[in-house]
Amino acid sequence: MRHGKKINHLGRTSSHRKAMLSNMAASLILHKRISTTLAKAKALRIYVEPLITRSKDDSTHNRRMAFSYLQNKEAVSELFREISKKIAERPGGYTRILKTGNRLGDNADMCFIELVDYNETMLSTKESTKAKPTRRRRPSGKKKEDEGAAVTEASTGETTGKEIKPKKTTKKAPVEKVKEEPAVQTDQPEPSEEGGEEKE
After folding, report:
1. Whole-prediction pTM
2. How many helical (H) and strand (E) elements, i.e. helices and strands, does the chain have?
3. Cβ neighbours of residue 44 closer than 8 Å, sequence gap 6 or more
4. Which of 13, 40, 67, 166 could cross-link with 148 by S-S, CB 3.0 to 4.6 Å?
5. For residue 69, what are the domain limits?
6. How many domains does the chain have?
């Protein structure tokens, strides 16, 4: 039974595992993205993220502690000079694991592990999604009131308190047209007179 065994030993001795994680962490810091198995990537994330947090405070003690884990001067200088500036505002979660399918030989789960702030494509897509304005539906009554207010302000320059008046005028306009139609119909005797003149 494996009660309370949280560490994945990855089928290696302690010294082999520490050396492997140290090399992988240095490679991740230098190249910003590496391809590995899913199990190793999860173990590496636990190993490298505390080191990245240490890089926020650039002191001699923190540099020496990082070097004791990485055993690589170039990786330590890259971590404290470049990466610490990029992740200064981020409160954790510095790495991202992207699954890429299974390996042909042994069918192991493969993935990329990368530093979040160095993936330009994902950062650009986030900015583009934020730039889009949100569209909200208005109730139909409010839209008509806004149009009426615009008409009153453009034509008369009246205050918004008299927005209801243009509505009444727009309602009266069709009624006047209905009254005019019967007046046109009463003019029908004129053609009959003209017909009578033609007969004469």
Report:
1. 0.62
2. 9, 3
3. 21, 24, 25, 28, 36, 95, 113
4. 166
5. 14-120
6. 2
